[in-house]
Amino acid sequence: MVFRNRIIMEHDRLPSSSVTVLPPYGSSLCQLCRSISLTEMRGPNLDRMQPHQPSLLALKESATDGCQLCGFILKALANPRQFDSFTIGDRSLAGHMALDSVSEQYPGRQISLVAWGAGDKGWLDRIRIITTGEIPEVEEVQGSESPACDPTMHPNYQLALSGSIDLFAFPEDPAAWHGDIKGRPLPRSAGDSDGDFELAKQWLSDCTFSHSPCQKKAVGETRLPTRVLDLGPSDGSEEPYLLETHGIPGRYITLSHTWGGEVPLTTTSSTITERKQCIPLALLPKTFHDAVIISRKMNIRYLWIDSLCIIQDSKLDWEKESALMGDVYGRSYLTIAARGATNADIGCFISRPEEPPPCRLDYRSLDGCIEGQMYVRDPSFQLERIDKSPLDQRGWVLQERALSLRILYYGSQQLYWECASATIRQDGKFRDVDGDDLRSYSGFKEDWDFEPKSNPKFHGVGVDELPAGLQIDLAQYMGQWHLLVEEYTRRQLTFVSDKLPAIAGIAKKYQQLTGYTYAAGLWKEDLRSGLLWSRSGGRDAPISTHLPTWSWTRFSGKVDFLSPSIGLLHAPDDSCKVIDLSYDTTDNLRNYGELSNARIQIEGRVVGTILVEDGPTALYETSLALFTKAGAPVGIPSFDEKEPRQEGFECFCLLVHGRLGSGAGLILEQVNGSKNVYRRIGYVGIPTTSMPDARDGRIAFSDVDPEVISII
């Protein structure tokens, strides 16, 4: 047997002692599954697929007869999470029902297997299952308006089913180093084995000495935060204590964790003297305890934990330290993230769930000289979703994650590494690839470039396709800001008063890079597009009555911006013009915190509107739409609060964006009958078109002269 020399890559540094020992080959496989070939599923140019069962019926029969892999494929096709990201409604449920409806009359079409890889060179960690058989021609049934497009499927379930199954190999096996399979078995250890610590140290070393982008951002020894835990020697011979640093230099680690609605061990005005003397390791909650162990293993003496390093019952200290939070994480040598812990008592080291036996397949090189084994994971085993983990639901963590130079995650199933240059998982998979979203998730540090001029990102639009006159720098910075805000607002905060502080560090970073003026979650230079947000979650009452009505920070819950990633809103558009932004600050966060007396002055076209049921011409699909009193259509409303508004409700609309595509504006109401002072009460989508006979919402504003108004 012939082998070749190989290089162990970063994701291959997985000690065999820490991974599951798989059972010997002996699973029942049908002849088709025994003939599966990585070469046939992939091809030298990543352009092949291997035909599998001739129909869904044949697949079900083979699974019933005991073929393990056919059973896995059947589960993957039926699993709701295996549908593409554009799946809507009850299509996932329909997938189960479609398989249940398979019969001799409706056998379904052939399925094929593709060894799936991401990027130009591929990242082989899964097998994609797709429907490929040709659709038989059928005669149109007389009197039928819509005959079935696929006569092999039940008329009620016209789905081309698809799915995926995880593929992995041991790093020492030829299937890995010759077949280039990147997937790896999950570890058995809880993250606290010698092998786990060796792996974490290697990731840290690679980032420190081999990653050029990270080296440029590294700070080395830096001024320590106001307070840190001094852990003493790495051998644990001394108990930790709280150290007032007075700005001495050093390296420190930060902990990112979730309180989970429970108050962990804290420092208060009455306990700070005691904390400075000693904090016995045995008294620390498990997450804090584990963070101390990890820090010592990394040979880092100082550790920063929010609840212990900020005086929790001191408003003055909290305001001072929260204003520095972005710098604390930005200057740390490493951030430890307790990804799998719901609160401080769970810990970083979490016992791993037992994985069901995988399906073992033979691997052979094209010439047959090299042989090995590859494995398919049982689709019923749910891999940890990093975007659904307890930690990644927390609002503060977005800032901690975005600003930290490098992060070591302790998940419920494995370790993860993330820095500006790499995203690595212990199981070798390509970042986060749950389901069939085809790796479109962009919530990684590698995707959050705070200097987008070096890496232009206009998703779905080439730079040469951008509108003439577009302010590219502004569009890139603010397009990314909108995406970050959308990600931030889907997360939860324990205290609603943290809405602005929890993102202030990112805002300061943007201000340092751009020189733009920030206020209440928006930017003066971006107000014309920044104002065009709408609430996509609930419609609860405002969480702050001090914040301006035009700011998304006034509310809890998810918000969406109009076209956040393309930058079309920054192209020349004379629909309206921002004249001024003014406000007073109220705390140590200055313009990054709560504001009072905030208002914007805008010159634009305002029309009086009325809420109409269905509209005079049933122009809109929704039941209520906004029209002028003269009957001209304006658009579809999305009110900021749940307060019921009936047909006949009167309000005003300001046209903000009126270019072709999707126009938008604000729904306003006058303040105390004042003619030129308004408050925002919602967002309105305004249809725009160049078709001569089509209705265009901008027409309602065409005969209105611009006027200067204030929105508070």
What is the number of helical segments per DSSP (H or I, 4+ residues)?
Answer: 17
Radius of gyration: 29 Å
> Strands of the biggest beta sheet: in what spatial order?
7-6-10-9-11-14-15-16
Give the quaternary arrangement of the chains: single chain
Shape designation:
flat
Number of strands: 29
Distance N terminus to C terminus?
77 Å
- Ranges where pLDDT stays below 50 over 5 or more residues in a row are 1-11, 14-18, 80-91, 141-146, 433-440, 453-462
Structural class: alpha+beta
| Averaged pLDDT | 84
Largest sheet: 8 strands, mixed
Helical coverage, percent range: 10-25%
Percentage of β-strand residues: 15-25%
Would you write up a description of this structure?
This protein is α+β, with helices and mostly antiparallel strands. It is 21% helix and 21% strand. It has 17 helices and 29 strands. Strands 7-6-10-9-11-14-15-16 form an eight-stranded mixed beta sheet, with helices on both faces. A six-stranded antiparallel beta sheet has the order 1-2-3-4-13-12. Strand 26 and strand 27 form a beta hairpin. It is flat and about 80 Å long. It starts with 30 loop residues before the first helix and ends with a strand. 43% of the residues are buried. Mean pLDDT is 84; it is low at 1-11, 14-18, 80-91, 141-146, 433-440 and 453-462.
